[in-house]
Amino acid sequence: MQWTRSRQSISKERLTQDARGWRLWSWSGPLGLAFFLGWGWAADTLGQGRASTEKALELEPVVVTATVAPTPLGQTTAPVTIISREQIAVQQATGVTDLLRQVPGVHIDQAGARGGISSVYVRGSDPNFTVVLIDGVKVNDPTNSRGGSFDFSTLSTDNIERIEIVRSPLSAVYGSDALGGVINIITRRGEKVPNGSVEVSAGRFDAYRTLLQANGTLSVLDYAVSGSYLDNGRPVEGSRFLGATLQANLGVHLADAIELRGVVRYADSRSKAFPDDSGGPEFAVRRTTEKRDAEDLTTGIMLKHTPASWWEYSFQLGLFHHHDHIDSPGVAPGVRDPVGIPPSVTDDSFTREDITVHHLFTIARGVQLAVGAQVQFEDGTSDGSLFLGRFTTPTNFQLSRTTWGPFFEAQLSLLPGLLVQGGGTRGFAAEV
């Protein structure tokens, strides 16, 4: 025998071709035909076996946001989109808004470049009707100008494992704020041997970024930490964003059935852009930009215990704190707004603490029941002033609210491809 790369047309009894494009010089006659028939059958059988093995190893993603009980993606009753770590790496996106723009049913409202406030509209609902979570901790801010949304411009892709976007009402799980849907940002966990990386990048418009990451496992501890600094440059006139972010996800496996996990995220940003409805860098009459300084702190602690194969319970504490200072030049009178918007200065501060307890029971094969309760303590202030010529008008606002209530959810999956679920919650609120 001999191997050759020739692709010229030659007689059937002399050449045959394998799956890699190589041609094999062979002998003619019944023996040669039997040899190649047997070789082709063996290659096909091995290929099928390899394909079936690869298919068996391919696991369907499990969604933890759409229901109280984790559910395979193919069985969820709500439309869910998952953005994986591999997709984030391929796109080389530095901001979460760059990823969400590609999700069907999701609209990003951002004035100018990243320096402007970024809000997300899910299926046409207002931003305050979409619950935003970071590792299960709610980060919506009811004291901001969008009435309870989350400013995605401050959220980078550092240390993110995946993003789950649920485009469906989930009030039974997350309360009345989730009429439009839920976006859950899940950070990375440590895995395998300890490793680290340093990344420095630069681009057009004087943009640059520095990212340091480390993750791994040490005995019963797993960790994933990151720190970054981003200068978005000046891609749009009058727009600038500078932000530093620190994130950590630490887990301790106290026993085979007990896991204690803590997450923390701190973000400090400074940005400027032309105000909303001002006309932007091309049409704005007032050329002074709006300046914002913001700080976000998100922390969470969760204890998960599986005492029996049919019973699992968890206890979670969450804290979200936001503070920002906004100095706006206002908007000149125009066609859309004959009066315009006067200049203003605002200081906002908001804190939310929440406690969640939930039990998951596997009553029988394909039958699950989840019950639990949640309580939230919210306190916020907004101290500001409007400058009306020689007069100053205060725009102070204060919020103090406690919300609590039980919830339950049942799932029935008795037939392949069929999932029946139902749930409910009862909320009680006390405001000051």
Map the helices and strands.
Blueprint: E1 3-4, E2 15-17, E3 23-25, H1 30-57, E4 62-63, E5 71-72, E6 80-84, H2 85-91, H3 96-100, E7 106-110, E8 118-122, E9 130-134, E10 137-138, E11 160-166, H4 171-174, E12 181-187, E13 195-202, E14 208-218, E15 221-231, E16 240-255, E17 258-273, H5 280-283, E18 290-308, E19 311-328, E20 344-364, E21 367-388, E22 391-394, E23 397-415, E24 418-425, E25 428-431
Parallel strand pairs: 9-12
Antiparallel strand pairs: 1-3, 2-3, 4-5, 6-11, 7-8, 9-10, 11-12, 13-14, 14-15, 15-16, 16-17, 17-18, 18-19, 19-20, 20-21, 21-22, 21-23, 23-24, 23-25
Describe this entry's structure for a reader.
With 432 residues, this protein is mainly beta. The chain has two domains: 3-57, no CATH class; 62-431, Ferric Hydroxamate Uptake Protein, Chain A, domain 1 (Beta Complex). Helices cover 11% and strands 52% of the residues. It is built from five helices and 25 strands. Strands 13, 14, 15, 16, 17, 18, 19, 20, 21, 22, 23, 24 and 25 form a 13-stranded antiparallel β-sheet that branches. It has a five-stranded mixed β-sheet with strand order 6-11-12-9-10. A three-stranded antiparallel β-sheet has the order 1-3-2, with no helix packed on it. A hairpin with a 2-residue loop joins strand 20 and strand 21 (367-388). The longest helix has 28 residues, at 30-57. The radius of gyration is 28 Å and the shape is globular. The protein starts with a strand and ends with a strand.
